[in-house]
Design brief:
heterodimer; A: mainly beta; 18-stranded antiparallel beta barrel; about 55% strand; disordered N terminus; B: alpha+beta; outer membrane lipoprotein receptor (LolB), chain A; 13-stranded antiparallel sheet; two-stranded antiparallel sheet; 3 helices
Chain lengths: ~400, ~270
């Protein structure tokens, strides 16, 4: 678990913000928030005796205000999560504590914030600024707040973003009683850093993006502590634990998106050095939407994304169909399959959401893991393990009810 | 010239005359239709930029009403279609979602969607504009900038609507991805303001009827309806759109319609 570091620098920062805003007239002030209750039901008991039903509670209030002249914006948004089973899934995080200043020729965003890079739907290879809160959701789209200074220049030749990233965050991993987890526990209390400054190193990134009619392009580079640690097996007593190893990496990314008629073609590619050999990885595919199917207001969106990763002999491909019902409750359903060509493993997933009334939303998510060999807890062959072998007992259905305050 | 030749000759002239009359009147009615459309377009020209709040009231078959709120910003672009930014305020789960679009007179519009939960800007295919907008009876196509160049026109007739003399024209969308085969538009003769539109779907079925009311003149030159209503004849649902706090020439610029501004839209 990563406690909020409300240390001297954060306090100083809040002080500066208050000083800036006390000299201007206030514009809009908003106090918002989200509360959600989540239940995850697994088909069976876990390989290590973890319970079948897991529940959690998340609270995320938000304060936003802007200056009267519309040039300064401030937001603070903490996120608290309490899990009934897995203490590693408890979270206290500052998702946002940021001050945005808009000037005539540039824009600065200073503080803790989230920023997304990328164009694809199933795997986000280029996105690197924020650490993934991997125990939150299965899709890897939940992120932790990242302290940074961002200078953004918007010109005729596109948008250039320069980032100084102040320190890095550790990835979250499920604990002993948690699910989904690997056969060995990731020791998040003892991370290994390549940098002497450990998690306090200042990292740098930049990204240029622009569009040319129906083509969107972005090129980015990140130099610093990896967000994706290697997990190093380390003996501990009779057992083994995994130490997360955060190397210094250099990663260059390319994003391209092209619209042709109703088709959206997408490509994300990266090349990374610093973690063993340099490698490249890419995701490419398309999204195609059919509107008004069967004379109803239903839209069908087809998504196919193919993967390549030098580090793996075989990367799973994704095929999905998104049903947008376009009704008053904004009902959505996404059905999909991740298919590993070489091992024959499949991973069937369903995601749905529906609004209830004006302030409540119900989301469901289900995953079925198919084709892996069933592993007995203390008897398996390391050299002959497929990616989904450990997940054979982990089929689950997740329901979440979110109330917006 | 034999009798029969004269007959054929005469018939030829009649046929020629008839054809020419048809062709010319066709051209005349097309020109007249276009002229009316241009005059109607002029009533909202020169607004430079505008900001407004919108309230959308969705009524289902049983008469239950739900409300959606959004903000809208528009920027007039010389020689091309307008730029617009729509920011959703309610329902709460979509608060902060925003759509930036650059409409073009002849080519497809450029559109970006901002998803605040992921902090993600996503380019979307503007071809998918014929689906319902926020679960309403309006589509994005109905609400986007109605450039004169996006249709071909035909003058149909003059007739009274609610006691006011109107021109009735037909306009056919030139975009093959339009959800409509044609629209019949009532434009009042006095001020050239659109009063009513009948929408015909891809099967030429009369799907919806839209009405415009509460026109007000801003800055002595720009006409804007304060209430729009659309009724779907197929599913019997209707949507009312009310414009509030309308302001023109507020000093918006290209910078307010950029990807960076999309990311901080509230």
């Amino acid at each position: 678990m990563q406690p909020v570091k409300l240390d001297i620098s954060v306090k100083t920062f809040i002080f500066i913000i208050l000083a800036v805003f006390s000299t201007t007239t206030y514009g809009e002030i908003e106090l918002l928030g989200e509360v959600s209750v989540e239940m995850r039901s697994f088909q069976n008991e876990g390989l290590f005796g973890q319970k079948e039903n897991h529940s959690s509670f998340t609270l995320s209030p938000e304060l936003y205000f802007e200056s009267g002249n519309g040039k300064d914006f401030f937001s603070i948004k903490p996120k608290f999560r309490k899990d009934a089973e897995d203490k590693e899934r408890n979270l206290k995080d500052l998702q946002e504590l940021q001050w945005t200043h808009v000037s005539k020729n540039y824009e600065t965003k200073i503080g803790i914030r989230k920023d997304f890079w990328g164009v694809t739907e199933t795997v986000h290879r280029v996105d690197i600024l924020n650490q993934t809160d991997s125990v939150d959701g299965f899709d890897g789209e939940d992120k932790l707040g990242q302290p940074m200074i961002n200078l953004s220049l918007e010109r005729e030749w596109g948008v250039l973003d320069l980032y100084a990233l102040i320190g890095s965050r550790e990835r979250t991993f499920a604990g002993e009683k948690g699910r989904l987890r690997m056969p060995f526990i990731v020791d998040t209390d003892n991370p290994v850093y390549e940098s002497n400054e450990e998690e306090n190193r200042m990292d740098f990134a930049l990204r240029w993006n622009h569009y040319f009619n129906d083509l969107e392009l972005a090129i980015s580079h990140f130099s610093g502590t990896t967000r994706e640690p290697l997990l190093i097996p380390t003996p501990e007593g009779n057992s083994i634990k995994l130490l997360p190893k955060y190397d210094l990496i250099d990663q260059t990314g390319l994003e391209a998106l092209y619209i042709i008629e109703g088709w959206v073609l997408k490509l994300e590619a990266i090349t990374r050095s610093g973690q063993n050999d340099r490698f490249t990885a890419l995701t490419t595919g398309f999204e195609y939407t059919q509107t008004g199917i069967f004379d109803t207001s239903l839209d069908l969106g087809w998504i196919i994304e193919l993967n390549h990763d030098d580090r793996e002999d075989h990367s799973p491909h994704a095929i999905g169909t998104r049903f947008s019902f376009n009704d008053i409750d904004d009902s959505q359903l996404l059905l999909g399959v991740l298919w590993n060509e070489s091992t024959g493993e499949t991973n069937i997933f369903i995601e749905g959401s529906k609004r209830i009334g004006a302030r409540t939303k119900l989301s469901i998510e289900g995953v079925i893991f198919n084709g892996g060999k069933k592993i007995e807890s203390n008897n398996f062959d390391f050299g002959n393990v497929n990616p989904l072998d450990f997940l054979q007992e982990e089929d689950f259905l997740r329901m979440e009810l979110t109330v917006f305050l | 010239m034999s009798q029969s030749n004269v007959f054929f000759f005469k018939r030829g002239i009649i046929l020629f005359t008839l054809t020419m009359t048809f062709v010319l009147s066709g051209e005349i009615s097309a020109n007249k239709g276009l002229e009316i459309a241009i005059k109607a377009d002029k009533t909202s020209e020169g607004f430079i930029d505008s900001q407004s709040s919108m309230e959308m009231q969705l009524t289902n078959r049983k008469g239950n009403v739900v409300t959606r709120k959004m903000k809208s910003k528009r920027l007039e672009v010389k020689g091309d279609g307008d730029k617009s930014l729509i920011i959703f305020e309610s329902p709460r789960d979509v608060k902060g979602v925003a759509i930036l679009s650059f409409s073009h007179k002849t080519s497809a519009d450029d559109q970006w969607l901002y998803l605040p939960a992921l902090k993600r800007v996503k380019r979307i295919a503007s071809k998918n504009k014929s689906g319902p907008f926020l679960g309403s009876e309006y589509t994005f196509e109905d609400l986007s900038s109605q450039e004169v160049e996006k249709f071909s026109y035909l003058f149909l007739r003059d007739e009274d609507l609610d006691g006011q003399p109107n021109h009735v024209i037909e306009r056919i969308p030139l975009d093959p991805y339009s959800g409509y085969t044609k629209q019949i538009v009532w434009i009042d003769k006095k001020n050239f303001l659109v009063q009513k539109i009948e929408y015909y779907d891809r099967k030429s079925f009369h799907l919806k009827t839209g009405t415009f009311s509460g026109y007000k003149k801003y800055l002595d030159e720009i006409w804007q309806a304060s209430r729009m209503e659309i009724v779907n004849h197929q599913n019997k649902k209707r949507t009312v759109l009310i414009f509030k706090d309308i302001a023109y020439k507020t000093g918006l610029s290209d910078k307010d319609f950029s990807q960076n501004s999309l990311k901080r839209s509230r």
